[in-house]
Automatic annotation (TrEMBL):
<dbReference type="GO" id="GO:0043022">
    <property type="term" value="F:ribosome binding"/>
</dbReference>
<feature type="domain" description="Translation initiation factor beta propellor-like">
    <location>
        <begin position="189"/>
        <end position="311"/>
    </location>
</feature>
<keyword id="KW-0810">Translation regulation</keyword>
<keyword id="KW-0853">WD repeat</keyword>
<comment type="function">
    <text>Functions in the early steps of protein synthesis of a small number of specific mRNAs. Acts by directing the binding of methionyl-tRNAi to 40S ribosomal subunits. In contrast to the eIF-2 complex, it binds methionyl-tRNAi to 40S subunits in a codon-dependent manner, whereas the eIF-2 complex binds methionyl-tRNAi to 40S subunits in a GTP-dependent manner.</text>
</comment>
<dbReference type="GO" id="GO:0006417">
    <property type="term" value="P:regulation of translation"/>
</dbReference>
<keyword id="KW-0396">Initiation factor</keyword>
<dbReference type="Pfam" id="PF08662">
    <property type="entry name" value="eIF2A"/>
</dbReference>
<dbReference type="GO" id="GO:0000049">
    <property type="term" value="F:tRNA binding"/>
</dbReference>
<protein>
    <recommendedName>
        <fullName>Eukaryotic translation initiation factor 2A</fullName>
    </recommendedName>
</protein>
<keyword id="KW-0677">Repeat</keyword>
<dbReference type="InterPro" id="IPR011387">
    <property type="entry name" value="TIF2A"/>
</dbReference>
<keyword id="KW-0648">Protein biosynthesis</keyword>
<dbReference type="InterPro" id="IPR015943">
    <property type="entry name" value="WD40/YVTN_repeat-like_dom_sf"/>
</dbReference>
<dbReference type="GO" id="GO:0022627">
    <property type="term" value="C:cytosolic small ribosomal subunit"/>
</dbReference>
<dbReference type="GO" id="GO:0003729">
    <property type="term" value="F:mRNA binding"/>
</dbReference>
<comment type="similarity">
    <text>Belongs to the WD repeat EIF2A family.</text>
</comment>
Length: 337
């Protein structure tokens, strides 16, 4: 049932984070970060760090990484470390460094925590078995890269790196695979007209969706979006995903699947178009499998098993938080075969 966590101070909760399996919960109250089991509420670790608003737990709950905004002061005119990594069992600081870009502080792990990568000063550092107190076992340098995404699969350890275009040069997404301690190139996908790019791996780590967007366009104040598909299974083949109608792409999400999922069974869902937006299911051939209808939807959420999807109407969360319901906003639950 519902449990109320015991507070160790009078401060309010400023941030929290779960492990991917939901077994551990980390909570910051402004004075310290406490890690607890979610089943019995037992405290398993406590790290004293003040004013922390962002942190991340490794999937095995053995490492905690905290981030605070970079600051300079009279005592530290060149700044002081604002990114820390802790071993939760001993409380030892594994690593501390200055990290200025707020978008790339968060480490990325494979689902088994065997591989971890961190972006630092225009490079990607690779670590094995959470040994963040050692030098990286491999470093990848790619000129101009902005961000990257590691597939969570413990079997297909693939990595995508986004490099923005400059002047007449297109933007590029470079795909690598981690094998035997080496980062091996697999594929490249180049495209024009992209101010921002989001990268989404399937659960199996075989396929990648690249959502490229411009801030403005000649036809819409939403800008323009294009959805690209890259597979690592067939020599890095890629394709543009055809949209069922004109209009913005509100959200893209993969159907959750296990490591033994057959490639032919993998699916992704797109919520797209001007309101009423269309919700469409695609296979990995980028073919429309079926439609979930249309409505004032802009958010999609799968259950962990990938059997049901929740279609949430525009501004539904805002109405819930304000507790004001001027109109009935239906929430639709669909069953995905």
């Amino acid at each position: 049932g519902l449990q109320i966590l015991d507070k160790e101070t009078d401060c309010c909760v400023s941030a929290l984070a779960f492990t991917p399996d939901g077994c551990k919960l980390a909570v910051s109250d402004g004075e310290r970060i406490t890690v607890r089991n979610t089943d019995d509420n037992k405290k398993v670790a406590s790290i004293e760090r003040k004013n922390i608003s962002k942190f991340s737990l490794s999937p095995d709950a053995k490492v905690l990484v905290t981030y605070e905004n970079y600051r300079e002061s009279q005592d530290a005119p060149n700044g002081s470390p604002n990114l820390f990594a802790y071993d939760l069992e001993s409380g030892k600081v594994l690593d501390s460094r200055i990290h200025i870009p707020a978008e790339t502080w968060r480490p990325q792990w494979s689902s088994d925590s065997k591989l971890c990568l961190r972006m630092s000063q225009g490079q990607i550092h690779f670590y094995i078995d959470n040994r963040l107190d050692e030098k990286p076992c491999k470093t990848l340098t790619l000129s101009g890269m902005r961000h990257c995404s590691l597939a969570k699969s413990s079997i297909n350890r693939n990595l995508a790196v986004y490099v923005p275009g400059k002047k007449s040069n297109p933007s590029t997404v470079c795909v690598y695979t981690w094998r035997d301690g080496e980062c091996i190139p697999l594929a490249n996908k180049s495209f024009f007209r992209a101010d921002t790019v989001s990268l989404q791996w399937s659960d199996t780590g075989r396929h990648l969706l690249v959502l490229a967007a411009t801030k403005t366009s000649d036809t819409s104040y939403y800008g323009e979006q294009m959805l690209h598909f890259i597979t690592t299974s067939q020599a890095g083949d890629s394709a543009s995903v055809p949209m069922p109608r004109k209009g913005p792409i509100h959200q893209v999400t993969w159907k959750p699947s296990g490591p033994r999922e057959r490639p032919a069974d993998e699916r992704f869902v797109v919520c797209q178009g001007t309101i009423p937006s269309a919700v469409t299911v695609f296979n990995i051939k980028c073919e429309q499998v079926f439609s979930l209808g249309s409505g004032s939807f802009n958010n999609l959420y799968f259950n962990p098993h990938g059997t049901h999807i929740l279609l949430i109407p525009y501004c539904f969360v805002t109405f819930m938080l304000s507790n004001v319901f001027t109109d009935y906003l239906p929430v639709v639950i669909c069953i995905i075969p």
